[in-house]
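Final report, Chapter 2: Outcomes

The project's central promise was a pipeline that accepts a single protein chain and returns its three-dimensional structure in a standardized token representation, suitable for archiving and comparison. That pipeline is now operational. To close this chapter, we reproduce one record exactly as it appears in the project archive, with the input sequence first and the structure output second.
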Amino acid sequence: MPDDSNGTSIASRRKFIATSSLVTAGLAGCTGFGGGDGNGNGGGGGNGTTKLTYWHQEGVPHRQKQFEKYTKKFNQKQDNIEVTVEPQNWNSVFGKLTSALEAGKEPDFMFSLPAFTMTFQSRGDLVDVSDIVKDLKKEHGMFDNAITPFQYQGGTWGIPMWDMVFLHHFRTDKLKDTNAWAPKNWQQWSQALTKVTDNDNYGITLPAAKNLWTTENLYTLMINNGAYVYGPEGKIMFDTPETVETLEFYKKVFKQASPPSATNWGWAEWERSLLQGTSYSTNGFSSWARSLEETEHAGKFSAIEQPSPKGGQEGSVHYVNDIMVFNENKKSAIAKFVKFLHSKGVYGEWLANTEPTLYLPVTKTGKNSDKFWNHKLIKKHEEMVKTQFDALPKASLYGFRDIHLKNDTYIPSVGTLEGSHVLGEIVQRLIVNDQSPEKAASWGQKRLQNVLKTEKSSKIN
């Protein structure tokens, strides 16, 4: 791996930094810990076999099973490469990886997310994978929007593996019959959500806790209304009229149509409200579709792209899951494994089996895979999955919006933004402390500057 531009050695940056707890706290919680000897950076075997070890954080048992299954399939096709998988969990992986890097015992490669990847790229720990991504794009038609979150500072630092995107999921037996459906703007949307709210049943589960789910919900609404965290030069541009309008809408919908107890809800409570039928819609991923099949509400949900305000724009948050590479000496062997997973006969089937409806292919080959679309659950929710594909080209992540791409802005604090849950904290001030949207935006501007150690954007007076 190369040193940075000012000659600082990579080893000097392999330290446990203050953002460790912030980054891991913002990532989806999973279970499962790694096995093996932890020496993922060891040499090849005595018989000329290249041994590879990789980590992933997909702790749900049925997901782990698929990683093991397809790793075994790859090994059976190889004479001189042997791959070992070591499952981790998001709650502890930052510290474990940082320690492994310090000791020279890191895995050869690892599944990751954009903010997590940028954090370790900024520390100088990653290998540029531009050549592997270029090959995959040429062979399989990899989507540009999947590559964007990993291209900066003259390289590509993550290999896109699958995508996940927010939609507005709703009960067709409740919301589809309202006279404001399908909503063309925020006003019609809030009218419909309020109309079906009564007693202990709510039009939407909108969160107001200091967690990633709230961060994602607020940020998607900000995208729809042209509001930003970062300005074009990467400095904080939060306290704007667009943000105030977004917070005003958020507060209105929460007060009129969301469970009051959602001020301290996490993923488990969110999912339970949908599966038990007390909430009729949500803005989020489709991770609960598998569990939905076991309830009386199976078949009652559909999805649309999240409505935008008048004069706003379509769009939502999305997460491209990637592979980051640590071992440059074994890069060609790693490329073979990655290309195996992306291959025509494997890719669609692997994603469909690992988490149907949630994990979306990032290539044309995967999108056109019969094995992907013929999965029982995907077939049942085909319309929703197709809507997800429609939403992906318009989806973006903090620090990778239009103004940032246009200016080629490098913003390494996105990991801290996501992990610190500052946007969720701002929503708490808005809802729990009952601050006005104007005061919440002003407080949020200062709070973001302090937490992210970034100055105010010149675009704010």
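Archive annotation: The CA atoms of residues 232 and 403 lie 5 Å apart.
This record, like all others produced under the grant, will remain available to the consortium after the project formally closes.
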